[in-house]
Amino acid sequence: MLKFFRTIRKKLIEEDNVRKYLLYAVGEILLVVIGILIALQVHNWNEGAKDKARMLTNIHSIQEDIQLETRLIAEVINRLRFQVEAYESVVPVMESGNRTVQDSLKFILDFNWLTDTPIISTRSNTWDFLNTSGAIAEFPDSELLRMLQHYYDAFEQTAINFTNTAIPSRLELRQLKYELFTDTEHRKFFPTVTPKAPGKMVYDSIFNDPRILPLCRYIGTTAMYFENEFISVQKISNDLNDYLNKNYR
User: Fold this and answer.
1) By the 8 A CB rule, do 223 and 79 touch?
2) Which of 11, 40, 60, 179: CA 20 to 30 A from 24?
3) ω before 195 within 30° of 0 (cis)?
4) What DSSP string runs through 160-200?
5) Per-residue pLDDT for the chain (249 aa), expressed as one digit of tens each?
6) Cβ atoms of 210 and 249 closer than 8 Å
């Protein structure tokens, strides 16, 4: 191609045809400009394709994070439900006049459930990266962006509230449990795969210590409240997973 243009240029110079030579020069310049524009367009297209691929990779990574968090939320809801049931079993007995325990093993296992402390850990590394790097401004799906912001705001706020308001009471009851019961009696029902009812002194400690009943009440009510809160977050995560599966499978 270059040899062809050189041949034409040489011929025009030899013919001493200035007009034709100028037209040729303009045409050659136009061809060079067009070539540059095409190269820039191809480069921009390649870069755009790379950016799109990177964003899709990030979206799929977020999807994996949310799927793991959805399973975590379901586990937390399940454990809170156990605490609600334990509260409904233990507190009425403690509030009754005669404090009669019909099933001593079930009572102590339910009481132990009230000391359970679900740990909530989020997997928002990709989402955090997109926000801190500024890449979130180039997010291609405005509806998905809105859903993600709603989900992470709801999950983070619920997790913080639960950690700050619910966990301390459970840890306090756990500490009291180790304070009031001997290690020998405690190991009869926890931790073990074959629990047995402890001695009478354990139940007397539960009934007679004035700190126990208020803590059990508080733990039960917070379990009810946060069960509903996490169910709401679970619904948001399920809707988000449905959207991702539909549009980014």
Assistant:
1) no
2) 40
3) no
4) HHHHHHTHHHHHHHHHHHHHHS-HHHHTTTSS-SS-----H
5) 545 545 655 555 555 555 554 555 566 666 666 666 665 565 455 545 555 677 788 888 889 999 999 999 999 999 999 999 999 999 999 999 888 899 999 999 999 999 999 888 777 778 888 888 887 877 888 999 999 999 999 999 999 999 999 999 999 999 999 999 999 999 999 999 999 999 999 999 999 999 999 999 999 999 999 999 999 999 999 999 999 999 887
6) no
What's the structural domain count of the chain? 1
Torsion of CA 179, 181, 187, 190, to 10 degrees: -70
CB neighbourhood size of 225 (10 A): 16
Domain extent for 239? 72-247
Residue 4, domain member (yes or no):
no
Pair 223, 80: CB distance under 8 Å: yes
Q: Is residue 213 part of a domain?
A: yes
Is 236 part of a structural domain of the chain? Answer: yes
String of DSSP letters for 21-69: HHHHHHHHHHHHHHHHHHHHHHHHHHHHHHHHHHHHHHHHHHHHHHHHH
Three-state DSSP state, 19:
helix
Rg (CA), the chain: 35
CA count, 13 A, side-chain hemisphere, 181: 27
Residue keyed to tokens 């508080």? 218
Question: Is-contact 187 236, C-beta < 8 A?
Answer: no
